[in-house]
Write a structure and sequence with these properties.
Order of helices and strands: HEHEEEHHEEEHHE
Strand content: 15-25%
CATH architecture: 2-Layer Sandwich
CATH topology: Alpha-Beta Plaits
Structural class: alpha+beta
Helix content: 25-40%
CATH superfamily: 7,8-Dihydro-6-hydroxymethylpterin-pyrophosphokinase HPPK
Largest sheet: 6 strands, antiparallel
Number of domains: 1
Mean pLDDT: 86
Number of helices: 6
Number of strands: 8
Low-confidence stretches: 1-8, 101-111
CATH class: Alpha Beta
Shape: globular
């Protein structure tokens, strides 16, 4: 029935698309925040895969607690911009406040790289390449970050980066073993378990 409706002229039911999302938390009960995020994401479409959980060293602002990171592969009918708005709403529901630097002495860079209860990033959306003031796809730093590539390569190793035309596993293997990209700075610690 849905296929029939989707093919009707003027139908607004879009086909499903595959999005890859990054999840991170370094405040409070980090694992509980990631689990809550996965439960909330399941309301936005069908979760096709969830990576292991990795404990990772902070990047940028290093004087903060370690992060837990994971990745999710989601089949969704939401367009990229609508999906981003939903991700931001999930962050807010878990106590993330992106406005805390307003009027404070924190810079935008410090706020972006600072501690947070939950961080949800839209990393890839099909093979879409997009650059708007609100959203850049693929995520512009995806190919430079072991804490992003390790969980992504676990659930979609052969998926090709639409700009560099290299598999996620190849991008991970090409990272230097230095600084925040040290192999030892990103360690698999377990699974999200029962949600």
């Amino acid at each position: 029935m849905a296929d029939m409706i989707a093919s009707m002229p003027g139908s607004s039911i879009p086909a499903s698309s595959i999005a890859l999302l990054g999840l991170g938390s370094n405040l409070g009960d980090r694992m509980a925040y990631l689990q809550a995020a996965v439960r909330a994401l399941s309301r936005l479409g069908e979760i096709l895969a969830v990576s292991s959980v990795y404990e990772t060293a902070p990047v940028g602002l290093e004087e903060q607690p370690a992060f837990l990171n994971a990745a999710v592969q989601l089949s969704t009918r939401l367009a990229p911009e609508a999906l981003l708005l939903e991700l931001l709403a999930i962050e807010r529901s878990q106590g993330r406040d992106r406005s805390q630097a307003v009027g404070a002495s924190l810079s935008r860079e410090t706020l972006r790289g600072g501690p947070r209860t939950l961080d949800l990033d839209l990393l890839l959306y099909e093979d879409r390449i997009l650059a708007t003031p609100q959203l850049v796809l693929p995520h512009p730093a995806l190919h430079q970050r072991r804490f992003v590539l390790a969980p992504l390569a676990e659930i979609a190793p052969a998926l090709r980066h639409p700009v560099f035309d290299r598999a996620l596993q190849q991008l991970l293997e090409a990272l230097p073993d230095t600084g925040a990209n040290r192999i030892a700075a990103v360690r698999r610690i377990g699974y999200l378990g029962k949600l």
